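Consider the following input, taken from an annotated entry for Polysaccharide deacetylase (Pseudomonas frederiksbergensis).
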Amino acid sequence: MRIVLLFSAWLLSFGALAAPGDVATLDRSTWPEQLTSPTLFDVASRAEILMFARVLLASESLDETSLAQRLGLRTINLDSVNNLRQRMWQRLLTNYNFAQQSCDQDASFCFLVEDLPTLREQAAKFVVSDDSFYIKWSEPSRLFHAQYLDEQLRKAALFPQTSSEVDRFGDYERNGDEMHDRLFLLTFDSAANAIPDNTAWVTEYLRKSNINGTFFVLGKDIQARLAERSVASLQATYSQQCIGVQGWEFRSHSHWQDWQDSVKRSAELVKNKLPENYVPLFRPPDGQRRSDAQGFFESQGLQVALWDIDPQDGAGKLKGSQSAQRVLTLMLLWRHGVINFNVKQDALKTSMPWLITQTAQSGIGWEDCQEAFR
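Applying the prediction step yields:
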C-alpha cells in the first residue's frame, strides 16, 4: 500500500513564485495514475486538498503589509481575505471527508482528519517523501496551488471595490458551493470579440457526448445571428442546451449607466426567440456587477450566476491543454462546482474533449443545465 510519509518539522516556505497576473497551471502527467475509477479520483483529490491546505496555512503567516506586497497591491481588504480563507477551510474539510470515504480501498494520502484543527495539523506536516510513488507531482503541485491561491487572495483583497466571482453579494447570487459532491456544471461565456465563435461546434460535441451546458450569450450576438439566419436555425444550434444572458454587450456591469437595460433587453430577446432554452440567469462579464442590485434582479426574476472553476482560457491566457489540466486539478480540489469555459477561444476545442475523456471513468457527473441553480 502506497503511504505518503510525513515530516512534522517541515513548514512550507511561501517562496518566490510567478508575478501577480500570471496564471497557475499544472502538468497532470506528473501525477502517476489515470483517473480510471472513483477510488483513484479520491486519491488524487486527497492529494490536491492536502497540498492546497498546506499552502493556505502558510499564507496565514504573512502580515497585512507582506501579503499586499506579495499580491502586488498597495492596500488590501483584509476582512475579505480572511473571509475567503475561512470559507476555503470549511470547504477543504468537507471535501476531504468525502474523499476519505474510499480510504479502505486505497489508503494513499489518508490521514486522521476529524475536524478543522486536525486538518490544519495534517496540512502543517504534509510532505511527500523522496522515494514516494508521487514525488514527481509534489513540487509542481505545490507551485500550482501557491500561485492559484494568490489569484484568489488577490481577488478577495480587491473585493468589493472591484467585484468578481470570489464572493457573493447575497442569496440571489449563485455559484457552485451548494452542488453535490462529484457534480459539475459546464457553462460557456461569451466575450467582446465576435470571432471565433465555437458555439455550433461545442453544442454538437455536447449532444454527441450526452451532456449539456449553459451558454451565457450577448444580446447583440443573438441579434446579429438572427439577421443572418432563421430562428429555427438558431434553435437547432442550441438544441438540448440552456441559454442565460451576459448582457447586451461584453462590458463591466458595475459602473455602466445602462446596465439594467443591457440585462433586460438581452433576457427579453432570448426568452422570446429561444424560450425552450432560456434559463433566468445573468452572468456578469468578468464577474463585475453592482453590490446593490438585488432588488433589480429579483424584480426581473433573475439570479446572478457566478462560477468557481476558472479555466483561464480567455484572451489566450492558457493553451487548450494547459487550460484543461488546470480545470481537472481544480475539480480534484473542489470536488464540485461551476466551470466557465470561453466559447470564443479555440483552446476550447482541445481542452473540453480532453477533460471529458480524462474524467469519463472517474465517477464524476455533469449537472443537467435545467436543474442547476434551482
